[in-house]
Design goal:
Elements lengths: L2 H6 L4 E6 L2 E5 L2 H11 L10 E4 L11 E4 L5 E4 L5 E3 H9 L5
Antiparallel strand pairs: 1-2, 3-4, 4-5, 5-6
Length: 98
């Protein structure tokens, strides 16, 4: 993840999950800030669901829904890809979740 993306994801709490894994509880504002960095030129309002132009395709109309609650999420209607914020970053950065 880039430094800007990491800055947006500072956890409010980190609870152990066992074997050294931790869980992150992100606020809606942190999730919004992350997605706004990944969708340059698009203002992302602070709502539960937000339609945006897809960061992966060139388009004029919104074809992606961002979810700003829980762990954040996305649903790309044009190609059917969906997942949480971390899966979005893996696709965006062309890396694995590891």
């Amino acid at each position: 993840m880039t430094a800007a993306a990491v800055t947006a994801l500072r956890p409010e709490t980190a609870a152990p999950l066992g074997r050294g894994r931790r869980s992150m509880q992100l606020s809606r504002e942190q999730i919004r800030a992350y997605f706004e960095r990944r969708h340059p030129g698009q203002r992302i309002p602070l709502r539960k669901k937000v339609p945006v132009r897809c960061a992966f395709h060139s388009e004029d109309n919104p074809s992606c829904t961002l979810f700003l609650d829980g762990n954040g999420g996305f649903n790309r209607h044009a190609c059917g890809a969906k997942g949480n914020l971390f899966q979005f970053e893996a696709r965006f950065s062309s890396c694995s979740l590891d």
